[in-house]
Write a structure and sequence with these properties.
The protein is mainly β. Helix content is about 5%, strand content about 45%. The chain has one domain. The longest helix is centred in the middle third of the chain and has 6 residues, at about 75-80. The protein is globular.
């Protein structure tokens, strides 16, 4: 099941699942070979959804949506966030967190083309954070599950601002907020526990 917050005319973190919180092309490599026959496992889970879309009475100029699993916050995750070494983290729970857009997006100088992207989070060597956009075609070709995020390489990186907040998010929360001070401006906001990551961006709808 998915629930979606909608904001008209344009309109709505990190996950620490076994580790916390970003793909693009994998370096040439062979697909993982299982040591034993694969076993299918059925799964059902409630997911979060946030969307911004343009509308003008009889047609849409475009939209962007993020779909994500909602892990539960645990206090011992604070220690994981506080570590200083570089790390690539699973973002969300269960299946890949996805961003689907049919319009161009600009996160500062970083351009994101229309299409579907798998998202992961990364802590850089200098302690800053980044959202990494991965190419789903490469991920699918290698049969990678989000649990094996550390096997991914590369990706288009968007810098994220970090701040500590007072109100705790007991489940991972992702929002797409409108920014009324800029034409077609918005902000991606990720909150988990009392930790918040964010990045402003501009949408480019069709005329």
């Amino acid at each position: 099941m998915s629930t979606c917050r909608l904001a008209r005319f344009a309109a709505p973190v990190f996950v620490l699942i076994a580790a916390p919180f970003v793909l693009a092309a994998l370096a040439p490599q062979q697909k993982p070979k299982p040591d034993a026959p694969q076993i299918p496992y059925p799964e059902q889970s409630s997911r979060g959804c946030t969307r911004l879309f343009f509308w003008n009475g009889d047609h849409s100029g475009g939209e962007v949506m993020v779909d994500y699993g909602k892990p539960v916050w645990r206090d011992d995750y604070d220690a994981v966030v506080a570590k200083s070494e570089p790390a690539r983290w699973r973002f969300g729970q269960n299946f890949w967190t996805t961003l689907d857009t049919n319009i161009d997006l600009a996160f500062g100088k970083v351009e994101i083309a229309p299409g579907q992207w798998y998202l992961v989070l990364e802590r850089k060597a200098d302690g800053t954070f980044a959202l990494v956009f991965l190419d789903p075609v490469e991920v699918r070709d290698h049969h990678l599950d989000a649990f094996t995020v550390k096997l991914t390489k590369g990706g288009t990186e968007v810098p994220l601002a970090y701040r500590k907040v007072d109100v705790r998010a007991d489940h991972l929360l992702v929002r797409l907020d409108l920014d009324g001070s800029a034409k077609h401006g918005a902000k991606l906001v990720i909150q988990f526990g009392k930790h918040e990551l964010s990045a402003p961006f501009v949408m480019k709808p069709a005329d």
